[in-house]
Write a structure and sequence with these properties.
It is a single chain. Helix content is 45%, strand content 13%. It is α+β, with helices and mostly antiparallel strands. It has one domain. It has a two-stranded antiparallel ribbon. A two-stranded parallel sheet has the order 3-4. The chain is elongated, with a radius of gyration of 17 Å.
């Protein structure tokens, strides 16, 4: 698991109230300004996966799935883009939780800690 911070112009991010009283994060700039830098990260995914498969395991083993998690407002778009680029299954963190643990999904502050726990399992 690796947490990757993406540089962004924070002044273009803000919140808007939704009808149900919750707040929604919005970006006032162009969507490409946020999503384009992710292409470099996707390329890094592919490099790491190829290194693991061919250098460390001589083509005998490969990464079996990618779990996407986070609290980015466009996480569904990011998930879709990764899924379109990768040859292995790409699932969301929600897909990996049992229904009894669904409340953990809403608490994004714990995702990194949960991921570290899964890494040891």
């Amino acid at each position: 698991m690796r947490n990757i911070a993406i540089e962004t112009d924070l002044s273009k991010w803000g919140t808007a109230a939704m009808p149900n009283g919750e707040k929604k994060i919005e970006y006032s700039g162009k969507e490409e300004e946020v999503l384009h830098p992710l292409l470099d990260i996707y390329n890094d995914f592919e490099k790491v996966m190829n290194f693991y498969r061919y250098s460390l395991n001589q083509g005998q083993r490969q990464i079996s799935r990618i779990i996407v998690t986070g609290d980015h407002p466009w996480l569904e778009n990011i998930h879709r883009d990764i899924k379109n680029r990768m040859e292995v299954p790409v699932v969301s963190f929600k897909d990996c939780l049992n229904s009894g643990q669904y409340e953990l999904l809403k608490q994004s502050a714990f995702h990194v800690n949960i991921g570290l726990g899964l890494k040891e399992g």
